[in-house]
Amino acid sequence: MTQRKGEVAIDYFTKWIEAEAMATITVRQCEKFVWKNIITRFGAPKFIVTDNGPQFRNPRFTAYLASFGVKHSKASVAYPQGNGQVENANRTIVDDLKKRLGEEGHKWLEALPHTVWAHRVTSRRATGETPFVLTYGCEARLPVEAEIPTFRETVYQPGQNEVDHLAELNLVEERRTIAAVKMAGYQQSFKRYHDNRVGPRYFQVHDEVLRRRDAGTG
Prior knowledge:
Elements: E1 2-3, E2 6-10, E3 17-21, H1 27-42, E4 47-50, H2 54-57, H3 59-66, E5 71-74, H4 84-101, H5 108-120, H6 131-136, H7 151-154, H8 158-170, H9 172-197
Parallel strand pairs: 4-5
Antiparallel strand pairs: 1-2, 2-3
Protein name: Integrase catalytic domain-containing protein
GO molecular function, one term: nucleic acid binding
Domain Integrase catalytic: 1-139
């Protein structure tokens, strides 16, 4: 989770995004966001990783998560990119809003739901699937399908719909497993690309160096 004039959360596996604009970002607003946008929709996760905003550093927020059995971790102060997936989601949202609005940036509040929806129904390179299908087990019916019927629309039979939907749900775990394998392969290829671009560095005694700090768990 992170805050940029609002709250943004992403599920690390499915890449599903929840985002909500807020006039003020208080501890209470963060608690309400977790309850409404995460727990009541998907259940209580084992972990929530946040940035180091003052709302998230407040012990009250950590205690609130603990009341649902959720462990709270914070990205390192020295390395906020440790919460990288949310930072990427932020950039995706901001870039899409800029493309949609152009000169009318003040209308971003109205455009935010459209941007989040577009992300949910677009295939992700890491998994090869849309966040929607990995979350719900079937592809979303897009509004455009009402005007330009797809194959799914043309073969739709009301009496067969429930059977077809159950078949899709039976395959969801298989699709998630395949997506997990693809994501692992994507991460490995990204690591190889990074390693090939990073050469060895040599240090002398008394040289100043940066020390890695793992994300805090307070």
